[in-house]
Amino acid sequence: MKRAAPVPITGVGCLCAAGMNLQQCMDSLFRGTRHAAPPTRFETSHPVNYPVFEVHADIPTTALHHGVELGRTSRLAVAAAIQAVQDARWIPEQLRSRRVGVCMGTTVGSAMNSEEFYRQYRQAEDPDMDPVIRFLAGNPATAVARELGLTGPCQTVVNACSSGTDAVGLGAFWIRSGICDVVIAGGADELCRVTYNGFISLMISDDSPCRPFDRDRKGLNLGEGAAVLVLESDQTSQARMKKARSFVLGYGSASDAYHLTAPRPDGSGLRRAISEALNHCGRSAEEVAFVNAHGTGTPDNDRVECRILQEVLPGVPFFSTKGYTGHALGAAGALEAAFTVACLEQGRIPQSVGFATKDPELPACPVKHPTTVTGDIAISESLAFGGQNAVVIFGKEGA
Amino acid sequence: MAIIGVGVVGGFGCGMTDLAGALTQGGAAVKTVSVKTSKGMVSQPALLADPSSLERFVPKRAVRRIDHFSRLALLAAHLALEDAGKLHAERQKMGLVVATGYGATRTTFAFLDSVINDGDPYASPTLFSNSVHNAAAGHLSILLGVTGPCLTVSQFDMSVASSLLSAWQWLDEERADTVLLGGVDEYCEVLGYCRHRLPGCQSAVIGEGAAFFVLSRDAETSPPYGFISDLQIGNHWGRELSTPHDALLLLDACSSEYRQYIRGDSRVASYSPIYGSLPVGMAFDMAIASLSLKEGKVFPSPKAVGNPFRLNIIEQEQDLIIPQFCCVKLTENGQFAVVTLARR
Question: Which CATH number fits domain A7-395: 3.60.15.10, 3.20.20.140, 3.40.50.150, 3.40.47.10?
Fold first, then answer.
């Protein structure tokens, strides 16, 4: 594989149950606080209230399309993008004269699954078409581009739970290849009843706050949110004397070719994705300071992931932030990318909240306390339905 | 990127021979579908695809839990691999990209049926896992043994053009030696209903199907279908599109938008009556452009297209004097894509 040039990250924005911006999120992570609770935005008839990680604050955007307010996923995406653009010290008018692309991951944001509309349709009523218009206007990448007035390519990645990680890796290529001067890359997803019911039906939801890598883990909790990185070319960032917060160094992607909803037991897809990402940037496993793991809290995911981490990156500290954010699906990889950048900057990682008891089946444990880390590069990884594995390597320095 | 294999299934039939036949005849057999409305059933014309030929490649038992959407993708993908002579090739260095506008809508609504009919605690796990947008890519990677990078893109009408960026990336970075890329969308009754209700959607014949391509790096000396030589994608913000003077522009409709944003002297064709109106229609235009490059002729634009805006339409079949084809897509919100296919 060709060696990749580092891509500067000049801005970060994020919002989720852990906080409404990156600083608030990192404060929550290092305090070890989390806010899992039964859903408040919809009702269900399950005998058990499976907890979720909701964003309770208002989402600060009023974007409209054809008079219809954008869907929640797109509003989350736009809000994170605006934060990131401000953090990068761009004003939208400046971006409009440049080649700026948008690469966003999602799952719910791409699904035409309004229950309200469909229930009316089934009853042969004339359903209100606003949910359909909202869906057609709500493609997250397009919504961000429209809101910021951007001219470059848009891509909405729908690789299930790895979408946000893939979006960052793919967006970095647009910079390296010269297609774009700046790329808005990340992911967004909202909590919705459909996915809530879906994950419960698969029996991979925990009825208490999730416990990634713990012996007693029972499954995941869903979450919601969005995160965006502003990627830009060296030439662009240097011309405006904007120092990078961090760099995208490498990206790896591989398929299990095994099962639609379960990871390959031998973890060969994840192993290959990590190896590819390291090769992509010419770095070695020994250089990795820490891993922000996928760590959903499902028995299968954590077993496979932990075994591969121990095999490929023995002794490298790892943690999961799903205990703070829930599993935000298409946004998860982007949120974790944002946290990874912040952890690299701060030289420390948070405790893997929810972990208490070592699983005798797992060869390693995540960090139980906030931990100081040394080293210049870090890994953020995602495993997804469909057998997709995605890994992005971030670095403090470009060289 | 070199195009070394193409596979298609749609309302015109299955495979490139059926596609060529429909192009020569100037149309495909349009069926009628019924949509339930508050005022009773409403009929609509539709070009529907039959994936039953998938049995030629995959045992019936292996696909019994796989939905119509994924079957369309599986069939077109197998046809493309067969066309490229890679049906039994090693797939460790193959990438997979699936583009879709709406995903597996029938399965999405079937999952909602399971929730509404049976209650939240009894929602169907099988329907849920198959309703996820990347389920088709998952089935493809499992049944074909593709272990390279795998991606699903959903960008409505821009899905296909956008997905080409990623195929290019993987080939350029030598992450993959070949990429199996395709577009797929299916008809479902709810979509039919939405088209009935939403303004501006009623006139086109709804379509469904899949078109897949086996792509490789440009090192191929003379690929049978030529090359994807250029890709432009973004928002035009009111500016005229830049297309080569000697290219034939393949449009999905001869609409006023195209009249406004393409050069006045451009030669154009619109083949949408062959495959219908669907978000990944650009994949079918790419397949038709590939076929034209391979066979050395330009197919006439079907008469059903009409020409209210007096575009310079190709009306007669002609030997290939056109060296390149631009598949053009515009959306009402200013997004555009131009995918150029050329012999060299």
Answer: 3.40.47.10
